[in-house]
Each structure stands twice: as C-alpha cells, then as structure tokens.
Amino acid sequence: MTASRWIAALGLAVALLLTGCGSEDPSAPPSGWKAADGRWWTSGADTATVFRTLETLQDMGITDTRTLSLTQGQITRAQMQEAVKRSLIALYRHDPATIDSLFEARAVPALADVSLSGDLREKVRGEFKQTAYKQVNNHYREPRRTEAGGGMVYPDSLRNEETSGTVELQVYVNASGEPEGIEVLESVHPTLDGIAMRATTQMKWQPAFLKVNNEWVEQPSFVRFGVDFGQ
Fold this sequence. Notes:
231 residues
C-alpha cells in the first residue's frame, strides 16, 4: 500500500471514532467470518470449494487453449460448439461442471444441424448463443440477488479520484442463498474493498436451481458483481 493510502485509511479510522460510529471496523469481517489475502469465508467453509479461478473456460477445465478462427470453411462443428461455450462464459461461471454437462446434453443436439456458412462470428454471438442458452436455461436457473447488504458507508475521507472506482467481487452462494466465500477480483482501496465485502456478507440470493427428475433443486453457485464507489 502507498503512503497516501495508509494515511487515508488512518484518517478513516479517526473519523469513525470522532463521529460516534463505534469501535467496530466497518471494513473488517463480521463475527463468524475469516479473512486472508483479499478473501473472506465463513468459519467451517471449504476454501477449495468457495474460491475458484473462473476467468476463462480454460481455468475451469472446460476447453483447451486453441485460438479459433471463425471463418467459413475453416471451422469444424466441434470448434463452433467451443466458440458458443466461450460466448456463454458468464453463465459458465455460476457452475462450470453443471453448465457444461447441460450444454453437452442439451445444446449440442440443438446445434447439430445449424449451417456453418455465412458470418460465423455473428451467428455465434447471436443465433447459436441464444439457442444454446435456451436449452441450458430449460434445466438451470441462475442465482438472483434478493436482498442488498445494508449499512455500507462511503467515508468522506476516501471520496477522491485516487480511491474511486468499482470493487469487483466473486461470491460463492450456498444452496440456501447465503454467501460463504467472497473474493476481491478488482480492488479499489483496502478499506473500500472491506466495506464492500462486509456489505456482501449481509446479502441474500435466490439460489441457482437445477431441474432433476422434473423437480427444481437448489444448487450452490458463484456470482460476480461490482460495488461502485464514485466520487
């Protein structure tokens, strides 16, 4: 941390005391949570489960490192399917193994007879993506936030250009819709990161659902979102 950021953080602590906000640090994990290296998790949570690198399909173990050339006559059907998977990266990040299983079982047959002529880039981003998403969505419902975290304070001492921006978070949500692991993907400032994470510990989600034997069953999943700290 730079010297200016240490000074800003110290100024925040003093300001909180002077304004009667109490001795509890608003950027620290609440009771029942642990923290290390930009990650918070509930006591008893399996860190190997609640923290995963989900930036690319390769990170998830879904695809290899091939660079696809979406040019007519130079792409196989399998390569087209991989390109469609890449277009659904946001969906895959919720639950890579489940989404890929559904893609193979439901989307691949639906894409089996599509034409590979014409503008393949446009088709992958449009028609093919929509077809695949619809097939997966018939059996999987994405998690949805139902309650925002309360009590988040943006300290006046940090309202400046250097410390403005969006804290990007990745959260593991259990089958009950409660967060069990929070990771900072993009930091703004240590104090603001902590404030955003603490607010997230109070959030609630409608969990993901998977259709099993015609019954919708709650599933754990990952979600990503940003907490904005503008000037």
